[in-house]
Specification:
alpha+beta
Length: about 100
């Protein structure tokens, strides 16, 4: 079972500084001391530590943890930053002739 963290509102994926710093310390990323909100665009959204951090947040704000279908091919898709999971099987593919 794989879980993934998504942004469930318009805007960029972001983490509160204290949550980001827990992840950063464990993963060797730079610690953030100035901004209250961090926009980590290159982290693995399925990182088990990230998932645990977000699940433990009392106020998740715009973040949500989703459980992915086992073995499914997926991608994070968004509309103006509001993210959702798009499964390969959900797409009505056309075949070129």
């Amino acid at each position: 079972m794989t879980k993934i963290v998504l942004n469930t509102n318009y805007g960029l994926f972001s983490l509160p500084r204290d949550c980001y710093n827990v992840l950063a310390a464990a993963r060797g990323l730079p610690i953030e001391n100035e901004r209250d909100t961090v926009y980590p665009y290159d982290i693995d959204r399925t990182d088990p530590l990230l998932v645990r951090i977000v699940e433990a947040m009392p106020d998740k704000g715009d973040l949500s943890v989703i459980t992915l279908r086992s073995g499914a091919h997926y991608r994070i898709h968004d509309y103006d930053g509001w993210e959702y999971i798009e499964y390969r099987d959900d797409i009505a593919w056309k075949v070129a002739s």
